[in-house]
Every structure is written in C-alpha cells, then in structure tokens.
Amino acid sequence: MKKLINSPDSVVDDALAGVVAAHGDLVRVIEPNVVVRADAPRAGKVGVISGGGSGHEPMHGGFVGMGMLDAACPGAVFTSPVPDQMLAATKAVDGGAGVLHIVKNYTGDIMNFELAAEMARAEGIDVTSVVIADDVAVKDSLYTAGRRGVGGTVLAEKIVGAAAEAGADLATVTALCQKVQDNVRSMGMALTSCTVPAAGKPTFELGDDEMEIGIGIHGEPGRTRMKITSAAEVTSMLATPILDDLPFVAGDKVLAFVNGMGGTPLIELYVIFAELKKILDGRGITIARNLVGSYITSLEMAGCSITLLRLDDELTKYWDAPVLTPGLRWGL
Amino acid sequence: MISYDDILAWVRRFAVTVAENKSYLTDLDSAIGDADHGINMDRGFTAVIDKLDGPDGLGGPDVGVVLRTVGTTLISKVGGASGPLYGMFFMGMGGAVAGKEALTLEEFATAYEAGLGGVLRIGKAEPGDKTMVDALIPARDALRAAIADGAAVGDAMARMADGAEQGMLATVPLVARKGRASYLGERSAGHQDPGATSSHLLLRSAAEVWAGR
User: Fold this and answer.
1) Structural domain boundaries, residue A102
2) Are A74 and A169 contained in the same domain?
3) A143 and B39 in contact by Cβ < 8 A?
4) Global pTM value
5) How far apart are CA A229 and CA A232, in angstroms?
6) Number of domains within chain B
7) Residue span of the structural domain in which B9 resides
8) ipTM value of the model?
9) Closest C-alpha to B184, from B32, B25, B26, B28
10) What is the pLDDT of residues A271-282, one digit of tens each?
11) Considering CB atoms only, which of A78, A112, A139 is closest to B34?
C-alpha cells in the first residue's frame, strides 16, 4: 500500500485538521468529529446535515457551507459514523426550525442515523430523514438492502441546502429532498480497485484489462465484470439502465452529472460527458445543467459514475442558487 | 449463578477473542461485505476495555450497568452496522437486568432475549437472511432447552455456543437478504456470514470462561 498518510488510524483526524486549516473561514470541526458551518446555528433556518464513511471526499465535509450542508459527520474510512456524531451535528445546527438528515441507503448509515434521530427527538429537536437510494445497478427488491445511495446525494445536498438557505420550512425542505430522490438515478463503473488504509490491501481484485460495471462507492460488486472497452460503449452501458429505469423520456430536461471515482483524470470524464450528450441527444433529452468532476469518490479508485436528475423549474432554481463550500462554489 | 465478575470476565474474554480473530472476521467480510468487520469489532471492544478499566469505574457491582456500558460504548465508538447491532444487543441485555449483582441462568436467558430483541428491532433481519440473527436464535433455543433440562451454567453455555456454531455454519449456503452482502445476490451463497461468526465467538467466549460451573 502506497498512500500519503501518517498512519491508517489517524487518516480521518489528520484530514479534518487540513480541512480546518484550509477552509476555517467556511467551516469548523467540533467534537466528536463533526464538520460544522462556521456560522451555525442560524436562527430560524432549517438545518441540513449528512454523513457517512470517509473516503468519498469532497462528499460530505466539502459540501458544508452557505447554500448546502450545515454539518457533515465523517466516519472511519468506508464505515458509517456513530450516532453521537449525528446528534452533536443536529444540536450544533438546530436554529429552532428543525433539522433534516440526508442519509445514503446503507445498512450501517440507516441504523446509526435512526438511533441519532431518536436521541435528538428525545431532546426536543424536530428531525426528519430522507434516504437517498439512486444506484440502478442494485435490484430494488425485498430481498436486498435496496439501492445504494450514490451520486444523487451530491445533487440532493446542493438543491436542498439552497432551499433551506432561502428560508423553506422543514416540511418543504424534506419534501424537496424526497423529490430529488424520486427523480434521480445513477450507475458507476471501476477500472481499478481501491485500498482502505486500515485494510492495507485492495478491496477487490480486477485484472489489468478488466472493468466492473455497476460498482458501488465502497467497491461493492456490480452487475458484470468484463474486458475494458471504449468510452462510448462504457457510457452506453451506464446510461441505458439509468434512462430505462425512471424512465427518462423525450422532452425531459436533465442535470447530467459525470463523476470521477478518485483516480480518473478530468480529461477522461469529459470524454464520457461527450458520449453521454450524444446518447441523450439521440433520445430527445436535453442536458439543461451539468456537473463534471470528482465529487463523490471511492479513495483512489479509477472509474466514473453517471447521474441523471430530471429537472423542473423548482429543482433548477435551487441548483442555480449561490453556494459557497470548500467543494462547490458559484453564483456569488 | 452468574456473578458480576463472571460477566466482566466474559466481556474481557470476548475482547481478546475479537482481537485474535480480527483478520479472520475481516477476511470473511471481504468475501461478501466491505472488509471491515474485524477492524470495527476490535476498535469497539478495545474502547469497551478502556472504558471498563477507565478512571470513572462502573459505580458498584451492577450487571445491568456493565452490560449497558458495553452497549453504549459500542454505539458511540464503532459505527458501521456492527456498532448499532452489538450495541443494541448489550443495551437490551443490560436493560433487562438493571440493579442485579448476579444472574440465575433464567435471568441470563431473559436478558439474552431482550438483547436479541434489540438486534431484531434495529436490524430488522429475519431468520435465514444470512446475518448474526442466524447464530443468535439457535443459541437462544439451545439455552431454553438446556434450562428445561435443568443444566448447570457451564453446560448450558456450551450448548448455547454449539447452537450458535451450527447456526453460523448453516449461513454458508444462504443467499444474503440484508446488509452489503445482499448486493451480491446468488453470489453471496457459499460464504459464511461474518456477523454470525462473531456472534458465535461471543457465546463461545462465555462457554469458555464459565466452563465447569
């Protein structure tokens, strides 16, 4: 394992120290490891928090700031945070208008957030939760843990954060988050595995000439493993299941998000985006907004994911609203 | 009777067992999960031992307090799925025997039932889903049978651990329906469930420290 770390045990703490050193004007870190917006709590504003295992940076800590998250709870690498963190985050950002928990659909995240919400409610804070489960690679059935929360989470955090910033109440913010979930679908692929620092060896084996289609952001297995092929074919293999699932149809306007898994250069993401544009043009679907870059990563994994969000005027307005965070900033 | 010191000895033995089996549990988890079960359990029980040995103490010989302290420490320190699941198990057990200095085998069974209830409530797994529940339920049934037979503590715990072991081994052919392993679908068959494995170790630890009683 070759990594720029001091020790596997201290990697999250050391990285948080760097976040504060770099972005102390936007965020602060409180015990027990919660990234909180510098000016939280804001009286009368709904708090929006999220969290999950570390290793997906800039998600979630990089999205704390004006117009997005009020706090983020980073767990150990690829391990959900503990309820104490979500409780501390909820209390730190509650301005009296309640707090929304945006939870990615993983067994550990669901359980820990559920315990935290129970504790926060016991302390008199109004808490709602929305689960993001947008990965079409997973069959959504009673016989699985359900779809994983992936790229749609980034879009939900931006849009919902903008609504909360604009003064929407807890019920409205919660319904908006559910609307994003209902209209967003994603799928990813990997060219290489990744190595969790504490494990010290790659999460899975993938041959030099192989790729995994449908990979999860923790290296969970996908739908198929096959020989590497062209970007055009890879894009089709990711976009087609997404388009057919919702389904997205001619006349739809979408936000197209091409995301890097951490080890893929931007030049390749733009190659994918060009192919995605061709496919959507061919189906009469308009890319009204886009995001291209590495925003929800899987350590050093090479690969990409595609996320499509069906837009309406409300979602577009909140996507366009100003945002000032370490990881996303525009409109200022 | 199972004394306050017996309960502490069980928790300490399990902490050692988890440390010894850290790589084994993580390897099982890497086959069908996310390769962190041993790491997380070891982090949790290291924190539990730090807490038991810490300056705050436990404020007197109360079995309920010990078990609840184990539970809250796991929930506070572990994360993932095993933190809430094992945390709720120990909190459930502790809540059922608050204020007791020692437990009869029947009282231990009552506490165990409450712990199992905590796991079922937070995890929502059913028998056959290929989870820790598949070890915990046969263990519960073996304990009930042992009590019905009038077994002594040591014998009852050995039978309980054997029940858990059989349940653990029976997870091998199952297709996972809960947790990360469920993403594999049919490919999860042929692998032993890591949570059922750590649950067997938990009860085997009790059988070892209470042997001959």
Assistant:
1) 8-182+319-330
2) yes
3) no
4) 0.93
5) 8
6) 1
7) 2-209
8) 0.90
9) B32
10) 999 999 999 999
11) A78
